[in-house]
């Protein structure tokens, strides 16, 4: 087994399977700028690695990924925010358009950007404690990493609207009948099941697997590029609005206060 060195995640390979583990457990693996860049770098490298046939992505601790780090959000200028969103587009594409199948092993909360990451994956296995949601509306915002576009594509418009407009956080088991989550397994079996699937897929002819991924993506995709651009434009307007700024600051202050009490 080999391991690559990153600060906010780890990449371990065994045979033809790579495991990417998000490692900001004290923040429920909330994504800051460094993690965003490291996810992009890791997945772009794995896509080009001919020795890898499948990728598993999971989180450390109780969270898969609890969205963007709102404390960092609150400190961003408008230009910083736009750059972060643009970099996010590249990050999600590195997963969705990866040449290798990506299996999400949901060990806990996948919220906001975390659920957006899940929406980019090819297969999703969850434990019984995993929950998903797109709660950006609680900040007076909309998702900016493809959440509005990919949730409709994978869940249907009405189910997506229920999530997006209420900000509900929903058990993974409720997404099985939609097809977003393939299986829910006991927590102790999560990684073994994800690795079993990854090894099974990685053992098949790489060109055929890559071809299947491209074909199913084409079948599912409408005018995604236009939708993603619209999403970023609306999010940018909302982030700069009075209520968006107020709610982001309030969330960041509450988060900092909770962290202070924990220490």
Strand order of the largest sheet: 1-2-3-4-6-8-11
CATH topology: 2-enoyl-CoA Hydratase, Chain A, domain 1
| Count of alpha/pi helices | 10
Give the overall shape, derived from the CA principal axes. globular
Q: Give the overall average pLDDT.
A: 92
What would your notes on this structure say?
- There is one protein chain.
- By secondary structure, this protein is an alpha/beta fold.
- The chain has one domain (2-189, 209-262): 2-enoyl-CoA Hydratase, Chain A, domain 1 (Alpha-Beta Complex), CATH 3.90.226.
- The chain contains ten helices and eleven strands.
- It has helices at 33-48, 70-75, 78-96, 113-119, 147-155, 157-166, 190-202, 206-220, 224-240, 242-262; strands spanning 2-4, 9-14, 17-22, 54-59, 63-66, 102-106, 109-111, 123-127, 131-133, 169-171, 183-185.
- The strands form two sheets. The protein has a seven-stranded mixed beta sheet with strand order 1-2-3-4-6-8-11, with helices on both faces. Strands 5-7-9-10 form a four-stranded mixed beta sheet.
- α4 (113-119) packs across α5 and α5 packs across α6 (157-166).
- It is globular.
- The mean pLDDT is 92.
Brief write-up:
This protein is an alpha/beta fold. The chain has ten helices and eleven strands.
